[in-house]
Specification:
The complex is a heterodimer. Chain A is of the alpha/beta class. In chain A, about 35% of the residues lie in helices and about 25% in strands. The chains are: A alpha/beta, B alpha+beta.
């Protein structure tokens, strides 16, 4: 945390109405500062993933404004490919390129977006793969990796582009409980290194441990926002209710093993 | 965590051996030995002469053939030249020439030797000419009427038992004499000498030799018919004279030197084009019909021309090239002999013409013979099929991939205009609308002019393609113009009760590709072949400009293996190969490719849609453009998925290529049809065609199976133990 945190990501009055008429996001505003990790929590259907996708324009927001370091993302005039290359994204179901080996998955963007030479790309890819502890499987195909390994490769793929902000779309919800740990460790390590991150997650305890701030979304609006301590001391009824419904399953302890 | 990446290494081993099998099979197919269209063998037979003297001349007398040679050799044969016996000879001088007719046999030779036999029982009458050293030729023009010629312009007539010298102003050597009847005769000699007599040899007129033959030593002449005379020179030229009705000249007045068009060496079909002469010392000439000539020469030269000398085929000589042939004599157009040095006599009953081995109708019902006779054709057809199939597959695949990408492209009208201000779009809309309406208006005259009525208008695209295109463009432009004019920046849909339509969602690329695929998938391929080749003449339309680009002038300077793909010329500038050689080939593979492209498009589109949409999102999220993601992420996976249905499509393409026969492309089905027409062996021919197709498709299927295995992505598809 710096004294004067720079605004990396700014979301203003974001609305998303799907073509079927579903009003998924109803006017959301927040920002993410340099080096900050922000967690978005909320029950399913609350519009968390939609917000994330609007940020790198995988879906076109109906209204509102998203900007990355002052550059507006959602106008037809912007070079969306360039902006996306500055925003890393990690998907719930990994979405590794199944036909490419681990190394090639990571170098693809470097070679064809960053236009790096084969050697430089490989060098950088190996360094990020080392960071996620996947150096021993660089020649494997994604199909031969376990879920946790896949997700770490996906993180490496996003990291390799040196993004200004990293978006996580429920990075652990497709994983078995015993595989979650390694992924969360990796993300935590990134947070400690000062990576700017926006994490949509179900892992409440993880959000509490990693996030500097937590945004609780409900029915398309920000229901409560504050430092991660709000998880211990929710102010609103809705968040209390949500947290108590989670405590019935009580998984958070495993996350930090 | 303990999984190992073993699948790829495991599956490579059988894949490699299969690859080798396939490669070997392909190589074997290419190596099917080309059989040359049979060989030739001589129809001349060597017969035993019983002598080793040089045999110089032959004549026919009293149902016998007589042959004379050096040292007074005389042989005769009573069985048309098959067996020979020596005859008693009254002389030891070399006999050079002979003639027969009017019940007499006449020979002449060294030291003025002239012998006459006036009946088969009678002895030789010695009427030698003591004053000349050698007589070069003698001719009988009546009973007891003889003309003899010699060196230095010597001509003697024998009439009523006495020799008389015919005075002549020239000193050239006279070599050969030929009389058509008792009066008309021709005489040739050195330095282009040609003399003509119309009075039985009493007086001789000098005739102009043809241009270029002024120095020629004319060695033999034959007055074949009242209108036709042939002569040969010892430097391998043929002279010819005939009466010309148009110019009003009789035979013998105007002489021409024959321009050789081709000269075939013995037993070969590779000829020498436009030789200036036959490159041989010709010795004798036999004219069999108005256009068929036989010639002999030094160095074992025997040849035939069946078209008056312009195309000469040297025949195979069973004695080899060491024997000089001196005289040829045919009893009939088919039976005859040629005599030469060292007692050589060749006999033929087949006009001396080389027999094409296997020229007789082969016994096609014998399968071995059938295969031997037709394999060349099958091979040609097979290669032709492979050619259009490979080109068709490549074209179809590229078309299919392109079309599928267009068809799945999310580019909508909204995407196209949203980056502009609504006002700009509206301003652009007005001229587009005007252009659209103008298109309609300009289409009217062409449409009306056809005089179509009612349902007949469905044929408008053929009757007035330009008008039809204008109508289509008119519809598109009017639609676009109205849409743009209505743009308010909201891109909202049109809603009329339950009818729900957003014109901004129209995807122009998809629409265009839909028209293409619908057209090619809803019309029969065979009609497409006919329309594209005969209707559009696509082959010609590509060939003509193509050849302008790959012209002989350009390629003769600088041709390489790439231009060789398109056009290959021989030294004379004649197109002999390359893609542009054959218009039916171009049309055939284009039709196949267009058709297959439409089907492959749908197959690939299906595969693209089978890729999880998040793969596109993942690609885009790292900053790849839409096309980059398609190329690097979606297509590589989609192609792997669609290998099995693509295999189907390609097998279909191979089988469909048989329809190319309809436009005359000589692929294997057409070859099969031609073979049936020649051999009438339906079962053999069509069975072999079937097997050929099976080999192609089966190889293709093996290849695709191998591809599928090689490119399989770990983690996709069914697994779970072997």
């Amino acid at each position: 945390m710096t004294e004067l945190p720079e605004n990396v990501l700014e979301v203003e009055d974001l609305h998303m109405i799907y073509s079927g008429g579903v009003h998924a996001v109803r006017g959301i505003s927040f920002n993410v500062n340099e080096g900050e990790s922000v967690a978005i929590i909320g029950s399913s259907g609350s519009g968390k993933s939609t917000v994330l996708r609007c940020i790198n324009r995988l879906i076109e927001p109906t209204e509102g404004r998203v900007s990355l370091k002052g550059d507006q993302v959602n106008t037809p005039h912007t070079d969306v490919n360039n902006l996306r290359s500055r925003i890393g994204m990690v998907f719930q179901s990994f979405e590794l390129f199944a036909h490419l080996k681990v190394l090639d998955n990571v170098t693809l963007g470097l070679r064809h977006v960053r236009k790096m030479s084969k050697r430089d790309a490989k060098e950088r890819a190996l360094s990020v793969l080392e960071r996620v502890d996947m150096l021993d499987r660089v020649d494997a195909y994604p199909g031969n990796l376990s879920g946790g390994q896949k997700q770490r490769v996906a993180i490496a793929r996003a990291l390799a582009m040196h993004p200004e902000v990293l978006l996580f779309d429920e990075p652990t919800s497709a994983l078995d409980p015993e595989l979650i740990g390694s992924v969360l460790e990796t993300i935590k390590g990134l947070a400690d290194e000062g990576m700017t991150m926006l994490i949509v997650t179900h892992e409440i305890s993880f959000a509490r441990d990693v996030a500097d701030r937590v945004i609780y979304m409900d029915e398309g609006v920000v229901a409560e926002e504050g430092p991660s301590s709000i998880i211990e001391n929710p102010k609103t009824e809705r968040l209390k209710k949500f947290l108590s419904s989670l405590h019935e399953d009580d998984v958070p302890e495993q996350a930090n093993e | 965590m303990l999984e190992h990446d073993t699948r790829t290494t495991e599956s490579n081993a059988p894949a490699v051996s299969r690859a080798v099998t396939v490669a070997l099979l392909m190589v074997l197919l290419c190596l099917v030995s080309p059989s040359h269209a049979g060989g030739f063998e001589s129809s001349w037979a060597v017969v035993e002469s019983g002598t080793s003297e040089d045999l110089l001349t032959a004549a026919e007398y009293d149902n016998q053939i007589w042959v004379f040679g050096t040292g007074g050799t005389m042989l005769n044969s009573s069985d048309n030249g098959v067996t020979w016996q020596s005859a008693e000879s009254p002389t030891e001088y070399d006999i050079h020439h002979s003639d027969s007719g009017f019940g007499s046999l006449l020979v002449a030779g060294d030291s003025g030797l002239v012998l006459l036999k006036q009946s088969s029982e009678s002895d030789w009458l010695d009427i030698s000419l003591a004053e000349v050293s050698q007589i070069n030729d003698v001719a009988l023009m009546g009973s007891g009427n003889i003309v003899a010629v010699g060196d230095g312009g010597a001509i003697f007539r024998y009439d009523g038992g006495i020799w008389e010298s015919v005075p002549l102003s020239i000193q050239n050597d006279l070599n050969s004499i030929s009389f058509y009847d008792e009066d008309f005769g021709v005489l040739v000699g050195s330095n282009g000498t040609i003399l003509f007599s119309v009075d039985g040899g009493e007086t001789w007129d000098y005739r102009e030799p043809p241009e270029g033959a002024g120095e020629a030593n004319i060695v033999a002449v034959e007055y074949y018919s009242p209108v036709r005379i042939y002569a040969i020179t010892d430097d391998g030229s043929i002279l010819f004279s005939r009466s010309d009705i148009v110019a009003g000249t009789d035979v013998g007045y105007v002489w021409t030197l024959i321009d050789f068009e081709r000269h075939y060496p013995p037993g070969s079909t590779d000829y020498l084009l436009n030789p200036s002469d036959l490159d041989v010392e010709l010795t004798s000439l036999e004219v069999l019909t108005t256009t068929k000539l036989m010639m002999t020469g030094a160095g074992g030269y025997l040849s035939i021309s069946t078209n008056g000398g312009t195309i000469v085929s040297q025949q195979i000589n069973p004695l080899g090239n060491d024997t000089d042939f001196n005289h040829i004599h045919m009893l009939t157009p088919f039976v005859g002999i040629a005599v030469g040095d060292d007692g050589a006599i060749l006999w033929t009953e087949d006009a001396g013409e080389d027999d094409q081995v296997g020229f007789a109708v082969p016994e096609y019902s014998n399968f071995g013979v059938f295969v031997d006779e037709t394999k060349e054709r099958f091979k040609d057809g097979f290669i032709a099929t492979i050619k259009i199939v490979s080109f068709g597959i490549v074209l179809g695949f590229f078309l299919g991939v392109t079309l599928a990408m267009c068809k799945t492209s999310p580019l909508s009208l909204k995407n196209l205009v949203e980056r502009f201000e609504p006002m700009q779009v509206r301003v652009a809309g007005a001229p587009i609308l005007v252009a659209g309406l103008y298109m309609f208006k300009s289409a009217i005259p062409g449409t009306r002019g056809l005089g179509l009525e009612g349902i007949e208008y469905i044929f408008l695209p053929i009757g007035a393609p330009v008008s039809f295109a204008r109508i289509l463009l008119g519809i598109a432009f009017t639609f676009l113009g109205l849409l743009f004019l209505s743009n308010d920046g909201k891109f909202s849909k049109i809603k009329i009760s339950s009818f729900n339509f957003n014109p901004w969602r129209v995807r122009p690329l998809t629409t265009i590709v839909n028209v293409y695929t619908d057209f090619f998938r809803n019309t029969p391929l065979i009609v497409q072949f006919l329309f594209i080749h005969f209707g559009l003449d696509l082959g010609g339309a590509i060939k003509t400009p193509g050849l302008e680009y790959f012209s002989f002038e350009k390629l003769s300077q600088d041709h390489n293996f790439i231009t060789d793909i398109f056009a290959i010329y021989d030294d004379n500038g004649t197109l002999i190969g390359g893609l542009l050689f054959n218009t039916t080939f171009i049309s055939a593979f284009c039709s196949l490719g267009f058709n297959s492209g439409a089907y492959q498009c749908e197959t690939i589109r299906g595969a693209i849609q089978a890729i999880p949409s998040a793969q596109m999102e993942a690609g885009r999220s790292i900053g790849l453009t839409y096309l980059q993601t398609m190329r690097r992420v979606i297509m590589p996976q989609a192609i792997r998925i669609c290998i099995p249905p693509m295999g189907n499509e390609m097998v279909n393409l191979v089988l469909n290529s048989s329809l190319a026969m309809i436009i005359g492309y000589a692929e294997i089905t057409r070859q099969g049809k031609l073979i049936v027409a020649q051999t009438f062996q339906y079962a053999y021919a069509w069975g072999m065609v079937l097997i050929s197709y099976f080999v192609v498709t089966w190889t293709l299927a093996l290849f695709l199976r191998w591809m599928e295995e090689r490119t399989r992505i770990p983690g996709l598809g069914i697994t779970g133990g072997d």
